[in-house]
Amino acid sequence: MSRPRSPVLGIITDTITAQRLAPGLFRALAEAWETRFLDVDRPVQELRARAAEWRADVLVARWLPGLVEELRPLGPPLVLIGGHERAVGVCCLGVDNPQVGEQAAEHLLERGYPHLAFVGKDAPYSHLRHEGFARALARRGRPPASSHILPDEGRERYLEDWMPPDTSLLAWLAALPRPAGVFAAQDSIGRRVLQACARLGLRVPEDVAVVAANNDELACGLARPGLSSVRIPWDGIGAEVARAAERLHAAGVTPEAPLQAVRVAPAGVVARGSSDAFLAPEPALAKALRHLHEHCGEALDVDGLARAAGLSRRRMEELFQRAGRDTPKREITRARMQRARELLACTDLDLGRVAEACGYAYAARFSTAFREATGCTPSEFRRRRGALGAS
Hints:
Elements: E1 8-13, H1 15-28, E2 34-39, H2 44-54, E3 58-62, H3 67-71, E4 78-81, E5 90-95, H4 97-110, E6 115-120, H5 124-139, E7 146-149, H6 167-175, E8 180-184, H7 187-200, E9 208-214, H8 217-222, E10 228-231, H9 234-251, E11 262-264, E12 269-270, H10 283-295, H11 302-309, H12 313-322, H13 328-346, H14 351-357, H15 363-374, H16 378-384
Parallel strand pairs: 1-2, 1-3, 3-4, 4-5, 5-11, 6-7, 6-8, 8-9, 9-10
Antiparallel strand pairs: 10-12
Helix pairs in contact: 1-9, 4-5, 6-7, 10-11, 13-14, 13-15, 13-16, 14-15
């Protein structure tokens, strides 16, 4: 008696994306599946021909212009990594890009940079991250950020940096009012901004702070100074790819309508040298802000923060108010909630240990604070961090 045919998952991405997705994908994917892989950098006609030979039940592909049109005629439903187009039988899945921009903006605002700016590319992910960045500034009553879109240079290798900074980027950076906080749409762009700063003699982070996105350890480590970056929960995205493939295969037919998009929330900024500064009109306030962010996971209260900064409580509260900041108590809570979101999104720590790592002695008190700050409980946040609705 012949064995039943195993379902086949065909993966067409670049190797960096495949390596990012692999841990979460294979942990969540049932063992019965067979997988096939093609590098998306191959010619599109070759991709289509080889994918047809697989007889895949579900295809997973990284978004590239025109690729959906080539793969859809093959028949299987398609999970599109990073895509934003609505097409029959296609499920777009990836990080919530507007939230990436929002988290970058909050990071730079927390550090006190008065002038914020954006560098990106003419690509959907970049535009969405820019939108989120602008939305966060508007919510804080800040003026729109200056922006610069890099010229199209064709397909580039993500980690390579052989190209010198273009003259338009140098001129734009030189004209920014300082100190400035710059959000680069992804890590390779962040490295180029740091190289441009070095060429112009701008000090990082004193004159210009830089925050990028994707948190690629190699790209951020190659940068000088180390590049701060918004963390993408690739394990969560990989697991969502597996769940989407299972759902589509179980349905038995290719859907005849566009599918609900799945967006995974980013997991906060990993701070490195490129944004390691707290700017404030008074050195004592800068000292208080640094202590707050470095020790928010401890039993820190407003009186303890004032003592660490060498200030009376009243004087410290005056400095926060004069600098246009929230009250110290609210700033402590905000820092703790950001840490909580990171731990809930990127670890499997139980709620008691998450509470302890965020400075709360009791999980119930932590849960109450988290609900007040986010509108949901920690458990709900952890369950919902994958599917955030249709786009």
